[in-house]
Amino acid sequence: MSITIREDDVYYQLEFMYGTVPELLAIPAPTMILDIKIYLNSHLLTVADDEELVRSIATRFQPFWNQCHYDTSISISDACPSTFSLLCRDPIFVSNSLTKISSIAIRLSVLSLEEIDLQKLLAAFSYLMASWFLNEEKKYPAVFSPVGRQFIKLNLFWYKKMRYEVLGTDVFDSGQVITDYIDVVRSHYTTLPLMSNAGNTFSGLRNHRGRNCIIKSYPLHLIDMSPPETV
Fold first, then answer.
1. What is the pTM for the complete model shown?
2. 18 dihedral zone (left: phi>0; alpha: psi -120 to 50; beta)
């Protein structure tokens, strides 16, 4: 699948592919790898071109996935066939029989006859990534939804704790419980349902000011658009 946009005579495109086509219901593997390839006028950007630039771009991809409650790290090397890899370690799901997404290959490319401006490039890529995310979050909320993953994390903790206190055991069919939670998240806690109910949601939040809540506002930037630090 691909998404293409045009700004004047500049074309930007996102293409992606899962390592293994997931089923309708899936969770992340213990370590999910996002292999990012960035093409500038059909040339694959690598550390051999500009290591400092690659590292600067790579770190901009981390904050969003940290918000999704992954422990992230960047892998960059000359031997890597991608521009860089983002390693997302999942601390939420224990071993179970559910289908797992272990890798996603993402290709971001630009075609331009003019000099490529880095900030414009990142803004266009961020738009493409957000468009891709909104589509995939609805299908696989346990992988992509920041609010949904927090919801599942908290409910799994309390389900396990209460089961142990009542029944004296914390052994249970986690796959079935997670499936039920994913259904709730898909209906109520992905980005689009939250936006459609924003008025009621944030009115309720104002009435509970000062209390902890899993629903918080956050910018939908899968690439950090903060200006580079100046020395």
1. 0.86
2. beta
